[in-house]
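Sanity check

After download, print the first record. It should look like this:
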Amino acid sequence: MKDQLLAKAAEMFLNLGVKSVTMDEIASEMGISKKTIYAHFPTKTKLIEATALYVFENISAGIQQIRKEDKEPIDELFTIKDFASGILQNEKSSPQYQLEKYYPGISGMIKEKQQQILDELIKENLLKGIAKKTYRKDIPLEFTSKIYFVGILGVKDRDLFPEKEYTTNDLVEKHLEYHLRAIVTPKGLESLNRFLKK
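Expected C-alpha cells:
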C-alpha cells in the first residue's frame, strides 16, 4: 500500500503541484480513506518528503542502469535526459520550484542528493569523453561538474523561465546542448549534431 500511495502521490504532485494537492484528493483518487494515508504518513509534509525521495530514487536507479551500459559519452547523456524526462513527462507544475518555495528543508535534502549523483555522473562522463577524444582534454572537471549542476537547477527556475514560454523538456534539452557545445572536440561535435537532428 505504501508504494502505491507514493506512486499516486508522485503522479499527482508532478501534475498538479505539491501545494495544491490535498490528502483528501489523494485518498479519493485511490479509493481509500484519508485515515489510511495518515497511518503511513502522519502529515502532508512527511508524504511530500517520502514522495520526493521516491521519485529521486527511481530516477537514480535508472541512471545507474544506463551508466552500466557503457554507452558513448554523448549518447549516455542524451539517454539519461530522455529517461528522466520520461518519468517527469507530465510535470506541469514545476515541483522543484514549489518544493523550494514551500518546503525548503525537503528541497535542500533533494538538491544535496542530486548534486552527489550528478557530480559523480558528470565527472565519469567527462573522463570517458576525454579518453575517447569526444571531449577536450583541458576541461576542468570539478568546475564543469558544478556548473552543469547549477545549470540544471537554473533552468527549473520559473521566475527566469516562465512555464508559458518554456517547457521543462525544452529547457533541459537546451541546457544539455549548451553544456556539450562547451566541451566537445570536432569529433564530438559531429556526434552531438547527429543527436540534435533526431
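If your output differs, re-run the checksum step. Summary of this record's structure: The chain has a mean pLDDT of 92.
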